[in-house]
């Protein structure tokens, strides 16, 4: 193999120089030992300084790319805490694959040196400096050229010094020696985690050598391992076959190289053509701007000349009003006329001019305006358009904001996707602004996103926002997506869990371990309760409340009801009526619905509603039932609405109002007064097979989790 032909494989991706003591990362890329330390130093320093600029300057040997520094800043902003109680895990931005690699608890100490690569680099260096000899380390000056190197002593010797330091009959005589070299590698590869143990197995899961202690009780206890000899034989056979295959395809490789050479030339030509087209486009813009500029300057100049002429004429007229000047001087001369007929002939017209001058003197107004406010150009829209000026490509798909997956709750989770389901863009730009009728100008807030979702936490409550997104691939960008308008909750989000103590009936209701979901199962308990009833009525509702109360302010919470739910009631209950709620006998029998009661008037509905200890609305069978109130429609059919996928409740303790919302669109379905004299608790009632799930808060991990999917 021509050793000089593989130089590209021997260059460190961090320092762009030949490898020096290369380490193998978990992603199987190699980086110099010193480069790893310097990158980790820059990475750790970014957490302390809050930025990456100073840390990048502190390591002149390595050249960390902008993308690597962006990843460091992104991880820094994500809130990873270095001083936590959890086991410390070192993240390393690999310069080879541009990914953040977890080095584990031991960090750099858990990495293997790549001695094979080190040996190849040494052979390359020797081939590059064949004329430079390796001198003996033990000769007195001047040193002699070495003839061999001892791998046990890690030193080079001439013949005389080697005999002197390795005499026959001693242990040193058994040392292993090779030709002159500066690359000394240990004879036995030791485990970096258990420094006294040699590696004798190969972990097929982690793809790295391990010792028997790693397999017995270390991090590879449950991993599949094989013996080192078996791994050596298997990997060598695979590598040999792959190399033979590549060698057999040499003609195909050369054909590809020829094709790539043509593509290089074609790329050069196409880039020059693209530059010319871009220059022509900008020249057209320059030409349009120059024409507009010239027209604007001409208009201003023409207006200036007209105004100056008017003002100059007015100046001359007023100068004529001075004594012995102009009109006054002429009038004074006319007064000297003694012939009445001649005087009258001239004085009549002169008197009219004098009267006009007198009137103009009493109501002085300049003949022209001095300001040029009408000639101020508004270029804000044009500046925005020019700011968005970029290359548009038909090959870059226009992203679409997914309204179903996007959520507006305690924070906003905005999700988008490409129609072709391909991630053709390198980065996305999400813009949003608050819809306000009072503001005439629109100011978009911008954020760059690496994935296809973003969590925003700086939005105002009870407000509508417009969102749009576009993709970027290098300097090429896609057109903006269709604007989507989403509304935030009407009040700050109130967080609570279902209370598993106060009045909770574990025979009828089932809570999940996190207490965010409750289910009522129509089992034997409901059948046994119904078996005792012989007249038309309904059985007792199973109530459950939230574990946190509200004393003041305005709050909002959301949940969704399973579609199969038969009957669910939701609302609020004051603390002084909780006991009455769980021991309410009015739920058992209602004479309004007894078959033989003879009652058929609506007056009992009002009595029944007023007797309830809490404010609730009824849901069930995929319907939302607006309560029968004087303000509600009289037609029962118009009081039945489709059940939204997510429901919300807004409680305003200060105003004594509670509203029930379609939480997906933040639209109020029903609002009524409520007595907030005590501490208010969220209340739920279920019957006949039903389930309620509390809406989970939006966190930053939601966006990361969706991107991983």
From TrEMBL:
Pfam annotation, one family: zf-B_box
Gene Ontology MF, one: ligase activity
PROSITE patterns documented for this protein: B302_SPRY (PS50188), COS (PS51262), FN3 (PS50853), ZF_BBOX (PS50119), ZF_RING_1 (PS00518)
Cell compartments where the protein resides: Cytoplasm, Cytoskeleton
Cited SMART domains: BBC (SM00502), BBOX (SM00336), RING (SM00184)
Residue span, Fibronectin type-III domain: 398-491
Key word rRNA processing present: no
GO process terms (BP): acrosome reaction; spindle organization
Annotated keywords: Coiled coil, Cytoplasm, Cytoskeleton, Ligase, Metal-binding, Microtubule, Repeat, Transferase, Ubl conjugation pathway, Zinc, Zinc-finger
Residues of the B box-type domain: 186-228
GO cellular component term, pick one: microtubule
Main location: cytoplasm
Family: Belongs to the TRIM/RBCC family.
Protein name: TRI36 ligase
């Amino acid at each position: 193999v021509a050793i000089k032909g593989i130089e590209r494989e021997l260059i460190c991706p961090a320092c762009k120089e030949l490898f020096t003591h290369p380490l193998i990362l978990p992603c199987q890329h190699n980086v110099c030992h010193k480069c790893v330390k310097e990158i980790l130093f820059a990475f750790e320093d970014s957490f302390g300084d809050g930025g990456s600029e100073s840390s990048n300057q502190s390591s002149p040997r390595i050249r960390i790319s902008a993308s690597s520094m962006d990843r460091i800043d992104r991880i820094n902003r994500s809130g990873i805490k270095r001083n936590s109680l959890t086991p410390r895990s070192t993240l390393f931005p690999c310069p080879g694959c541009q990914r953040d690699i977890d080095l584990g608890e031991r960090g750099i100490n858990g990495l293997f040196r790549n001695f094979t690569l080190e040996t190849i680099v040494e052979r390359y260096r020797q081939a590059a400096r064949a004329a430079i000899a390796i001198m003996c380390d033990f000769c007195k000056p001047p040193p002699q050229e070495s003839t061999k190197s001892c791998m046990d002593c890690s030193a080079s010797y001439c013949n005389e010094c080697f005999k002197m330091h390795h005499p026959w009959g001693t242990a040193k005589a058994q040392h292993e020696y090779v030709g002159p070299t500066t690359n000394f590698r240990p004879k036995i590869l030791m485990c970096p985690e258990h420094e006294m143990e040699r590696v004798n197995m190969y972990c097929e899961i982690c793809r790295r050598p391990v010792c028997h202690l790693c397999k017995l009780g270390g991090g590879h206890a449950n991993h599949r391992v094989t013996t080192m000899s078996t791994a050596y034989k298997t990997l060598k056979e695979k590598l040999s076959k792959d190399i033979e295959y590549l060698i057999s395809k040499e003609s195909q490789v050369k054909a590809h190289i020829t094709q790539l050479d043509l593509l290089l030339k074609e790329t050069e030509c196409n880039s020059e053509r693209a530059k010319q087209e871009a220059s022509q486009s900008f020249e057209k813009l320059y030409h349009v701007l120059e024409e507009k500029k010239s027209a604007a300057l001409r208009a201003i100049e023409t207006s200036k000349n007209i105004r100056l002429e008017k003002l100059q004429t007015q100046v001359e007229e007023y100068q004529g009003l001075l004594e012995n000047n102009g009109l006054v001087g002429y009038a004074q001369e006319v007064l000297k006329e003694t012939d009445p007929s001649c005087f009258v002939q001239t004085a009549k017209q002169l008197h009219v001019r004098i009267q006009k001058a007198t009137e103009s003197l009493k109501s002085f107004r300049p003949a022209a305006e001095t300001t040029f406010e009408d000639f101020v150009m508004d270029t804000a829209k044009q500046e925005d358009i020019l700011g968005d000026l970029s290359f548009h490509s038909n090959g870059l798909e226009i992203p679409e904001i997914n309204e179903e997956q996007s959520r507006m709750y305690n924070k906003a989770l905005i999700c988008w996707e490409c129609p072709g389901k391909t991630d053709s863009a390198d980065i996305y730009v999400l813009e949003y602004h608050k819809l306000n009728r009072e503001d005439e100008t629109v100011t978009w807030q911008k954020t760059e996103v690496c994935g296809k979702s973003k969590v925003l936490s700086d939005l105002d409550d009870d407000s509508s926002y417009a969102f749009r997104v576009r993709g970027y691939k290098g300097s090429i960008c896609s057109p903006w997506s269709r604007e989507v308008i989403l509304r935030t909750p009407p009040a700050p989000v109130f967080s609570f869990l279902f209370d598993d103590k106060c009045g909770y009936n574990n025979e009828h209701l089932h809570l999940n371990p996190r207490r965010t979901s409750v289910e009522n199962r129509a089992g034997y308990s409901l059948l046994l309760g119904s078996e005792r009833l012989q007249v038309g009525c309904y059985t007792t509702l199973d109530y459950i409340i939230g574990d946190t109360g509200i004393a003041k302010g305005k709050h909002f919470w959301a949940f969704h009801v399973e579609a199969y739910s038969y009957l669910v009631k939701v609302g609020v209950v004051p603390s002084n009526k909780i006991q009455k709620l769980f021991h309410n006998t009015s739920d058992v029998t209602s004479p309004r619905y007894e078959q033989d009661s003879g009652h058929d008037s609506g007056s009992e509905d009002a009595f029944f509603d007023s007797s309830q200890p809490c404010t609730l609305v009824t849901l069930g069978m995929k319907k939302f039932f607006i309560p029968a109130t004087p303000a509600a429609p009289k037609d029962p059919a118009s009081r039945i609405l489709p059940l939204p996928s997510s429901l919300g409740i807004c409680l305003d303790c200060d105003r004594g109002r509670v509203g029930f919302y379609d939480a997906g669109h933040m639209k109020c379905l029903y609002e009524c007064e409520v007595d907030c004299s005590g501490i208010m608790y969220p209340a739920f009632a279920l019957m006949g097979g039903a389930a309620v799930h509390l809406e989970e808060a939006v966190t930053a991990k939601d966006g990361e989790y969706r991107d991983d999917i």
